[in-house]
Amino acid sequence: MDSFTDIFQQAFALVVSGDTALWTIIWVSVKVSLTALLIATPLALIIAFILAFTRFIGRRLIISSFNVLLAFPSVVVGLIVYLLLARHGLLGDLQLLFTQSAMVIGQVFLCIPILVAMGHAALQAADRRAWETAITLGAPPWRAMLTLMYEVRFALIATVIAGFSRIISEVGSAMMVGGNILGYTRNITTAIALETSKGEFAQGVALGIILLAIALLLNLCLVFFQGRGQIHS
């Protein structure tokens, strides 16, 4: 087995050389996670707004449920989606199992709780007078909602970044419903697990470097937008 220094050098060479297999894996990760985020964000923010600005029976229970789902294991989400998409499952006729679409579905389920929970917290901190003023001036509810969201835009951007961080680094759901198919559903986390089990540490470390770089960039963005939100609050 090569030394850690040799493995790291090989990994770095893979990253900078533009290795096709490596960057295909990275592209699958980014594509699937961004697609899931784009699907989950509008729905989650609408739910968060309803929970923050309306009162109805069961509201507190729903809020508590989303908070509990923040810690829901990704492998359990993968199992649920797998059972739904399996041949004899409720959605088996769609034949989506072991496709990128199945991975997107799993990541949407993982992403929505954190977007709702953090979005709800951000909207509750907003000045309710912005909503009331917009309604008083005759703005339709959807425009008043967008006005309020603009007031807390930095906190909501931080929410979206946190949601993306959650799904791009998950492995359980992607492995179960994606099948880890080379060139199609193999993403960064599933590839790291596979390559490490095969003893191909260089590619695993290379992908780990990329994932850490993405995580660092996302966290820097998160800190920046959270800081901007506090300045404007």
What descriptive keywords fit this protein?
mainly alpha; MetI-like fold; 233 residues
Provide a brief overview of the structure.
With 233 residues, this protein is mainly alpha-helical. The chain has one domain (19-232): MetI-like fold. The protein is built from 11 helices and no strands.
Question: What does this protein look like?
Answer:
It is a single chain. This protein has 233 residues and is mostly helical. The chain has one domain: Orthogonal Bundle (MetI-like fold), CATH 1.10.3720. It has helices spanning 4-17, 20-53, 59-69, 74-85, 100-124, 128-136, 141-151, 153-168, 172-178, 188-198, 201-232. Helix 2 (20-53) crosses helix 8 (153-168), helix 3 (59-69) packs across helix 5 and helix 10 (188-198) runs antiparallel to helix 11 (201-232). The longest helix is centred in the first third of the chain and has 34 residues, at 20-53.
Structural class: mainly alpha
List how many beta strands DSSP finds.
0
Helix content: over 70%
Average pLDDT reading: 89
Unreliable residue runs: none
CATH superfamily: MetI-like
**Beta-strand percentage range:** under 5%
CATH topology: MetI-like fold
> What is the level-2 CATH architecture name?
Orthogonal Bundle
Layout of strands and helices, then pairs:
Layout: H1 4-17, H2 20-53, H3 59-69, H4 74-85, H5 100-124, H6 128-136, H7 141-151, H8 153-168, H9 172-178, H10 188-198, H11 201-232
